[in-house]
Amino acid sequence: MTAFQCEAFLGEALESVLSQSVTPGExxxxxxxxxxxxxxxxxxxxxxxRLVSRPNxxxxxxxxxxxxxxxxxxxxxxxxxxxxTPDKTRLQLDAAAADPSLDLVFGYAxxxxxxxxxxxxxxxxxxxxPPIPGLAxxxxxxxxxxxxxxxxFQEDLKxxxxxxxxxxxxxARVASRxxxxxxxxxxxxxxxxxxxxxxxxxDYVRVLKAAIDRRRGGRSPGEPA
Length: 225
Prior knowledge:
alpha/beta
């Protein structure tokens, strides 16, 4: 789990992981240089959650740090202001067990407007926010070996680091499956990463250009932009 200035939301995110119908073997929270009480929230879960602190480096660096710290053969991600649905882990592990060829398992995601002081469980998705295919880090279960072979998340992108990674994964022809179950609840609260880093929207253009360049130049799919 990656967290930056998530004091107000992190407790609910952690509870959603701890209350899974199949509890993950370990939970690692990477505090990406927060200056609020994010680390204190993690410490309140002593014995159940491992805290890794690092200077602020952005989402790609935080995810790479978490992967390096994790010990399992399967790795899942969650941002500190979002939450998993109760059966997320079970559904994805069952799919992987049923088809051992799978490298990645995704599920659907749903956006919910839930600002500070409002839980995701209380918030309503609304008709304008139907579940959508969750091709995002928080809705993915990935083999550790697949993460290694595709390569690390780009650390110089403020936005689009997962889009870049997923593009490289698809170019490498990894086997994936999308479950039609909602596995991720994404909190919309006015300070999301896309809002904080509007000025970095050009990162999406960089990601697209890098993918085009790889196709034209024959670069390895596992090579970042």
